[in-house]
């Protein structure tokens, strides 16, 4: 089972929701079930996720990363990170230094060594 | 998705979708259009003239950090001829302001601008930590807001500047428009969209980022690798503003132009003269010389309440009357140093006084 490794950064105050750490290294399975219901229950270690399932898979994308971060890295107040299945309005997301709005947001595909940055704009001017 | 090309230069990879226009642009074109729009805002509102001494109200947060960078860039690029200063207010909040002031000190070196830090402690004899220890977390924002406003003016007078620029951005202004509408505060609604405010005897204040989206300010700071501080004030949660902000962000997600549209709506309200006339005339505070709409300015009233252990006296009229009933302020009451109008303002006043009436 192949995995990809991403560098994920939180800033603008968002790091307070992630154990006060700005830089995280995240390993994800290269392919994940198409049906999000298959991820929801218990996010497994990369590699074990698909073991023994015949569920249809797709290349891993940003939507899966959000799910993974919420389940595995978030340490406080998930409602300040995600809302209606995507990041809360006011949080900027950059994928390899480009606004994720250009890359299809949740549908943007992830590759090994990609860099993802989350910045909250909601904290102190 | 395949990389898209910049809509402006048509060659570099687009990295940003502009919230105002939906345009996809590259990093260099983004810097250029962002800076140029601020420049145009400054020119259209005729904010400065050559030789002006301008203080940037610097908190160490994203908006004022980007403002300092852009003001320096534009002053150099277009020869505004401004003398720029950084002015920071130290409210005395341990673990919040002391950290953000470190950012401002680094900005001082990076941008080579003189920095003045004025603290609540030296001006009022009270830090916010001490105020909160006495009055609790309710109403402490009233104290902080009143004290900060006056401290900025006094800091500007010490620096002898003509003008204070602040980092208020389009999102902040749209949020304030919404709040003033929801509260029915028509007088403030009329004022809150103006780019520049100047009473007869107050220092000119303006907002060069009036039309700059918060998203672009944060992106600018990110791509320029600017160093800013982003921690929420530990005493503050202004719940009402927080809801207005969340509502505005939802609107922006549905339609990015919402922010500019709300500012335009605020500007389009015509405020009747009757409403304006009910605003009180300005005078000077008999105790500290600062401008005031009453005998005592708001800061002196709040300070007297703190000193006499009746902190609510500056917050509600009823508590104020109760304090007055206890007798006049004691002789040895701690007061704010007397306010000296800066030279520039005195000159203006004299000039106005000698204008022949036709
Ligand atoms: Zn370009
Ligand atoms: Zn006073």
Automatic annotation (TrEMBL), chain A:
Xref: Gene3D superfamilies: 3.10.20.30
SUPFAM superfamilies: MoaD/ThiS
1-thioglycine modified-residue sites: 125
Pathway info: tRNA modification; 5-methoxycarbonylmethyl-2-thiouridine-tRNA biosynthesis
Domain of life where this protein originates: Eukaryota
Single GO BP term: tRNA wobble uridine modification
Keyword terms, alphabetized: Cytoplasm, Isopeptide bond, tRNA processing, Ubl conjugation pathway
Processing and modification events after translation: C-terminal thiocarboxylation occurs in 2 steps, it is first acyl-adenylated (-COAMP) via the hesA/moeB/thiF part of UBA4, then thiocarboxylated (-COSH) via the rhodanese domain of UBA4.
Subcellular location, record wording: Cytoplasm
Cellular component aspect of the GO annotation: cytosol
InterPro entries: Beta-grasp_dom_sf, Mopterin_synth/thiamin_S_b, Urm1
Listed CDD domains: Ubl_Urm1
Predominant localisation class: cytoplasm
Position(s), cross-link Glycyl lysine isopeptide (Gly-Lys) (interchain with K-? in acceptor proteins): 125
Functional note: Acts as a sulfur carrier required for 2-thiolation of mcm(5)S(2)U at tRNA wobble positions of cytosolic tRNA(Lys), tRNA(Glu) and tRNA(Gln). Serves as sulfur donor in tRNA 2-thiolation reaction by being thiocarboxylated (-COSH) at its C-terminus by the MOCS3 homolog UBA4. The sulfur is then transferred to tRNA to form 2-thiolation of mcm(5)S(2)U. Prior mcm(5) tRNA modification by the elongator complex is required for 2-thiolation. Also acts as a ubiquitin-like protein (UBL) that is covalently conjugated via an isopeptide bond to lysine residues of target proteins such as AHP1.
HAMAP family xref list: Urm1 (MF_03048)
Family per record: Belongs to the URM1 family.
Official protein name in the record: Ubiquitin-related modifier 1
Lineage: Eukaryota, Fungi, Dikarya, Basidiomycota, Agaricomycotina
TrEMBL record, chain B:
All copies of domain Cytoplasmic tRNA 2-thiolation protein 1 C-terminal, residue ranges: 283-312
Subcellular location: Cytoplasm
Keyword ATP-binding (UniProt): yes
Record-given protein name: Cytoplasmic tRNA 2-thiolation protein 1
GO cellular component, one term: mitochondrion
Keyword set includes Ion transport: no
Keyword annotations of the record: ATP-binding, Cytoplasm, Nucleotide-binding, RNA-binding, Transferase, tRNA processing, tRNA-binding
Cited PROSITE patterns: UPF0021
Limits of the tRNA(Ile)-lysidine/2-thiocytidine synthase N-terminal domain: 54-232
Residues bound to ATP: 57-59, 63, 89, 167, 172
Family stated for the protein in its record: Belongs to the TtcA family. CTU1/NCS6/ATPBD3 subfamily.
């Amino acid at each position: 089972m192949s995995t990809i490794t991403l560098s994920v950064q939180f800033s603008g105050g968002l790091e307070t929701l992630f154990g006060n750490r700005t830089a995280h290294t995240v390993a994800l399975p290269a392919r994940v079930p198409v049906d999000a219901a298959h991820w929801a229950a218990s996010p497994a270690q990369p590699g074990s996720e698909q073991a023994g399932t015949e569920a249809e898979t797709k290349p891993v994308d940003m939507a899966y990363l959000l799910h993974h971060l919420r389940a595995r890295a978030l340490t406080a107040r998930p409602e300040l990170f995600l809302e209606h299945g995507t990041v809360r309005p006011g949080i900027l997301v950059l994928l390899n230094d480009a606004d994720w709005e250009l890359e299809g947001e949740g549908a943007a595909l992830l590759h090994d060594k990609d860099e993802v940055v989350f910045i909250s704009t909601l904290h102190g001017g | 998705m395949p990389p898209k090309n910049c809509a402006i230069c048509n060659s570099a990879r687009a990295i940003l979708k502009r919230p105002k226009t939906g345009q996809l642009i590259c990093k260099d074109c983004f810097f250029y259009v962002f800076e140029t729009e601020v420049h145009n805002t400054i020119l259209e509102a005729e904010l400065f003239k050559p030789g002006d001494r301008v203080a940037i109200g610097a908190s160490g947060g994203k908006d004022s950090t980007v403002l300092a960078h852009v003001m320096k860039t534009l002053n150099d690029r277009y020869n505004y001829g401004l003398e720029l200063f950084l002015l920071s207010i130290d409210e005395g909040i341990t673990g919040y302001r002391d950290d953000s002031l470190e950012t401002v000190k680094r900005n001082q070196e990076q941008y080579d601008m003189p920095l003045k830090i004025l603290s609540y402690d030296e001006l009022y004899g009270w830090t916010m930590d001490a105020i909160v220890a006495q009055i609790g977390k309710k109403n402490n924002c009233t104290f902080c807001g009143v004290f900060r406003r006056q401290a900025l003016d006094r800091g500007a007078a010490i620096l002898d500047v003509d003008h204070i620029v602040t980092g208020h951005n389009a999102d902040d202004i749209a949020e304030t428009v919404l709040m003033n509408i929801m509260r029915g505060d028509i007088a403030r609604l009329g004022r809150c969209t103006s780019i520049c405010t100047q009473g007869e005897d107050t220092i000119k204040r303006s907002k060069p980022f009036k039309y700059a989206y918060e998203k672009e300010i944060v992106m600018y700071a990110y791509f320029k690798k600017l160093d800013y501080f982003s921690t929420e004030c530990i005493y503050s949660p202004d719940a009402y503003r927080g809801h207005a902000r969340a509502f505005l962000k939802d609107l922006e997600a549905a339609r990015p132009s919402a922010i500019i549209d709300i500012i335009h709506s605020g500007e389009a309200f015509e405020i009747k003269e009757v409403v304006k006339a009910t605003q009180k005339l300005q005078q000077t505070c008999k105790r500290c010389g600062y401008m005031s709409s009453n005998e005592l300015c708001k800061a002196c009233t709040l300070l007297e309440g703190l000193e006499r252990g009746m902190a609510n006296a500056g917050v509600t009229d009823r508590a104020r009357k109760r304090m007055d009933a206890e007798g006049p302020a004691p002789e040895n009451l701690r007061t704010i140093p007397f306010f000296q109008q800066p030279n520039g303002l005195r000159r203006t006043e004299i000039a106005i006084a000698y204008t022949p009436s036709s």
